[in-house]
Amino acid sequence: MLLNKITALWVVITVSLGLGSMKVVNAQEEGIRKIKHIIIIMQENRSFDSYFGTFPGADGIPMKNGVPTVAVPDPRTGKMVRPYHDPHDRNFGGPHNAVSALADIDDGKMDGFIRESSSGKEGFFGQMEYYPPKFIVDTKKYLDVMGYHDEREIPNYWAYTKNFVLQDHMFEPIASYSFPSHLFMVSAWSANTKVPSDPMSCVSKLDPRDRTAKNPTPFAWTDITYLLYKRGISWEYYLDQGAKPDEDDFVPPPSIKKRGWLAVNKMWNILPGFVDVHQDRQTGNLEQLSRFFKAAKHGTLPSVCWIIPNRRDSEHPPALVSVGQAYVTRVINAVMRSPDWNSCAIFLTWDDWGGFYDHVVPPHVDSLGYGLRVPGIVISPYAKKGYIDHQTLSFDAYLKFIEDDFLGSQRLDPKTDGRPDSRPDVRENDPILGNLLHDFDFSQSPRPPMVLPPYPKKSGKSVKGR
C-alpha cells in the first residue's frame, strides 16, 4: 500500500544520508493510534482445543483422516480416551487450580486431564458447587474434559474467527485458576503482600490470597489503571449485572434467579483489591454492564475497558455454552453498532483452561507461567481477515498493546513507572511474547461490522442439553 511504500522510502533516505540513528516510525506502530478504544472480554474456563481444536489451519488436535492421534489414560478403566466431539450445551470440566495445571501438563506429556477430573479434588467444577463426585463418577461425566465443540455448537465464535483473527498460541499467563489469571490481566503479576500497602513486600504466588472484609486491599503492587490514571486515559471495568457482595464466597443458590448467581463473583472482580485504585480514587470506574451498552450506543466508550461476566453468562461449567456465546455476541454487537466502531479493538479470551484437554505444552517464562492454552480472538475494523496468529501470546500482550497505544510504551516496570514494586520481571518485555500489532492491517479501509444473532440457528446437529 502507499503508506508502506512511503515508510520504506524514508528508511532508504535515512540510511543513505547517514541518519540511521534517527527513529523511523514503522507504519504498523503508527497505525495503532487509529485504535482509540480497547475492549477486553474475559470469559471462563475453556482450553483452545475444546473450542477450536478442529478449526481449519489452527494448531488443533492432532488428527489423521479425521481421527485424533492423541489420547489420555482413564485411571478408572485403564483405557485410553481420545478427544471427541461433544454436542452438549452444558459441560462439567475438571479441577483447574495450580496443582491441577501441573498434573494436567505432567512434565510435557499433557495426559493428566482425566486423572484429575475423576479425582473429585477441590476445584472440580468450580469447587464442587453443583455436583458431588459420586454423581460425576457414576455417570462418567468426568470424561467430558476430552470433549470438544465446533461450529455446530459455537457458530458465532467460529464466524468471528473466520472473518477476523484467531490466536492459536494464547496461553493463560499463570499456571493456575481464574483469580490469579484476572490479577495478571490488569497487572501482569500474581502475588501475596507481606506488609499491607507496601508494594516492595510482594512475593510471587500461584495461589494468592484474595481480599476479605478484614483485608479489603491486599494487592499492593501496581496495576495498569495506575498508569492510565496518571496519563489521563479513561478506563472502566464493567461487571455483568453488578458485583456480588464481598462478605462471603460464592455459594451456589437453589435457584439461578438469586443474586448470587446473577452478580459477578469476587474472584473475577479484582480491581477493588488494588491499593492504587483506592489511592487514585478510581473505584467509581467499576460499573454495571448496562453502562457499557449506554456508552457504546452514544459513542462514549472509554479508552480501555474490561468486560467481566456473571456465572450464568461466563461459560464456566456448568453454565451453558449457548448462553455465554449469546452474552458475548450482544457485547460485540453493541460495539459494532456504536459510532465508535471504526476506532475499536476487541480482544476476546477465556481466563483458564477449566480442566479441559489441550495438547500444546505451555512455554516456561518464569516461576508463575505460562499456564495452559486458551482461545484468543481479535475483532476490529482493522483486524486481518481470516488470519490465524501463531505467535506465542498471553494476557501480558493485552497490557503491552494498551501501553503502546496510550502510554508511550511505558511498561509496568518498577524501575520506570513511578511506583516501584518487587515484581521479578517485566512480563510485557519478555522476548517470547508476541506483538498484537501483527493481527492488524492499519493500511486497509475500516472493515464493516458483522452483527450476528445472539442465538443463531445451529449448523448441523442441534446442541444437546444435559
Overall helicity? 25-40%
Count up the helices: 15
Question: Could you say which structural class the secondary elements and strand pairing correspond to?
Answer: alpha/beta
- Strand percentage lies at 5-15%
Whole-number radius of gyration? 22 Å
- Unreliable segments of 5+ consecutive residues: 1-25, 122-131, 247-260
Number of strands: 17
The largest sheet is: 9 strands, mixed
Distance between the termini: 52 Å
**Integer average pLDDT:** 89
Taken from the alpha-carbon principal axes, the silhouette is globular
Describe what this molecule looks like in 3D.
By secondary structure, this protein is of the alpha/beta class. Helix content is 26%, strand content 14%. The chain has 15 helices and 17 strands. It has helices at residues 2-16, 27-31, 48-52, 98-105, 113-117, 125-128, 133-139, 155-163, 178-187, 224-231, 259-262, 275-279, 289-298, 321-336, 396-406; strands at 37-43, 63-64, 67-68, 72-73, 80-81, 84-85, 147-148, 165-171, 191-193, 202-204, 235-239, 286-288, 304-308, 344-350, 373-379, 387-389, 393-394. The strands form 5 sheets. Strands 1, 8, 11, 12, 13, 14, 15, 16 and 17 form a 9-stranded mixed β-sheet that branches. A hairpin with a 2-residue loop joins β2 and β3. The protein is globular. The relative contact order is 0.20. Residues 1-25, 122-131 and 247-260 have low confidence and may be disordered.
